[in-house]
Write a structure and sequence with these properties.
By secondary structure, the protein is of the alpha/beta class. The chain has six helices and seven strands. It has a seven-stranded mixed beta sheet. α3 packs parallel to α6. The longest helix is centred in the N-terminal third of the chain and has 24 residues. The chain is globular. The relative contact order is 0.16.
């Protein structure tokens, strides 16, 4: 095929609506749909069964986490993660009000490993957190939920199914959590 024929075929190809931009847009559409499908399926999943320890050394199966038929929040953190600590401190400031209004409970899951896991109890006690603290030193629960970054927060409905999730923290983001809980209570 000559160069002239190749150029003509390409022109005709582009005239028919197939151009690099449309291919890019199709890829973006496909990836967006694929991503949303993943978020939707993750939002409907039951909590996986992973054995964690509380600060007293008692084993807790994550598939049995509950709040007496009310929604609850799971927040993954580490003592070295500044955004995690900022979020949990912000929640601490409004937690009593949240509990009075909705009865919500927060499980704070530490992914500190090795020597750092020994700091979790004293540090959370010094901060005055009244959340239930669980230890995930091998990140088994974190991995089972497909978490790559922390802070990671999940709102779980009264049936133990994940209703929503997010990673990262910006000031005020804790308000979105209580709004999710309120929506679940209105169902």
């Amino acid at each position: 095929m000559t160069n002239k024929k190749i150029v003509m075929e390409r022109r005709n190809h582009f005239k028919n609506g197939a151009c690099p931009k449309s291919n890019k847009m199709e890829k973006i559409k496909f990836l967006s749909i694929f991503f949303l499908a993943g978020v939707i399926s993750a939002s409907a999943q039951q909590l996986p069964s992973v054995q964690l320890k509380d600060l007293n050394g008692k084993t807790v199966d994550t598939s049995t986490l509950d709040n007496d038929g009310k929604p609850f929040i799971i927040s993954f953190f580490a003592t070295w993660c500044k955004p995690c600590l900022m979020e949990l401190e912000a929640i601490k400031d409004v937690y009593d009000d949240w509990q009075d209004e909705t009865g919500v409970k927060l499980f704070a899951i530490s992914i500190d490993d090795g020597q750092n896991s020994l700091k979790v109890g004293p540090e959370t006690q010094a901060k005055g957190w009244s959340f239930e603290i669980l230890l995930d030193p091998n990140s088994d629960f974190k991995r089972a939920l497909g978490i790559n970054t922390i802070p990671a927060v999940f709102v779980v409905d009264e049936n133990g199914k994940i209703a929503s999730s997010r990673t990262g923290y910006t000031n005020g983001a804790e308000e979105q959590l209580i709004e999710e809980v309120r929506k679940l209570l209105k169902k």
